[in-house]
Amino acid sequence: MKKQLLIVDGYNMIGAWPELVSLKNQDRLEEAREALLFRLSNFAKYQGLEIIIVFDAQFVPGVTQSYKKYLLTVVFTEEGETADSYIERVAGELNDRLTQVTVATSDLAEQWTVFSQGALRTSARELYKTVQQTEALIAGDTEDTHYQNFRRNSPWNNAQLQKLSQKLDELSRKK
């Protein structure tokens, strides 16, 4: 099975996801980036994906860098390079027999470019819906795990159950 790699146009998601748009409109761009990273990290871990999130350096001059955070790769492009051109270049390089690249952006020109290179594409809205569905699954799994060890409809508490178990052991040995 091919390794799944998702390359995300970060500011495109911030401009499309309702919660992130709200933060951006309040001039809280750093918080919007952090919220995006947090949500995508949970999504990546649950789905078993590798994710690269790309941000244009034009919004954060002088920050050209690449680093790992929340098990994600975060890239701020060089000042002369747009996120689109970086994504198109990297998608073409990394999409091969062993890796299936999917690019998340609502930029139609970028979608067609990466699609012509053999990569898959998803819109910001599609990724948002997929992340929401995954978050619901995570919440459901968390609740299932929480109640996994609960004894359903039992009139007995743990101390009483232990005493009953001990009594059963005693009676079993007397035979």
What does this entry look like structurally?
The chain is of the alpha/beta class. The chain has a single domain (3-133), classed as Rossmann fold (3-Layer(aba) Sandwich). The chain has helices spanning 10-14, 18-25, 29-47, 83-94, 108-116, 124-147, 158-174; strands at residues 3-9, 50-55, 65-69, 72-76, 99-104, 120-122. A six-stranded mixed β-sheet has the order 3-4-2-1-5-6. Strand 3 (65-69) and strand 4 form a beta hairpin. It is elongated, with a radius of gyration of 24 Å. The mean pLDDT is 88. InterPro entries: YacP-like.
List the helices and strands and how they pair.
Elements: E1 3-9, H1 10-14, H2 18-25, H3 29-47, E2 50-55, E3 65-69, E4 72-76, H4 83-94, E5 99-104, H5 108-116, E6 120-122, H6 124-147, H7 158-174
Parallel strand pairs: 1-2, 1-5, 2-4, 5-6
Antiparallel strand pairs: 3-4
* Strand content bin: 15-25%
Helix content: 40-55%
Across the major sheet, the strand order is 3-4-2-1-5-6
The level 1 CATH classification is Alpha Beta
| Number of beta-strand segments | 6
CATH topology assignment: Rossmann fold
Order of helices and strands: EHHHEEEHEHEHH
**Sheet having the most strands:** 6 strands, mixed
Shape: elongated
Radius of gyration over C-alpha positions, nearest whole angstrom:
24 Å
CATH architecture type: 3-Layer(aba) Sandwich
Uncertain regions spanning at least 5 consecutive residues:
none
N-to-C CA distance: 58 Å
Summed up, the helix count is 7
InterPro entries: YacP-like
Pfam family, one: NYN_YacP
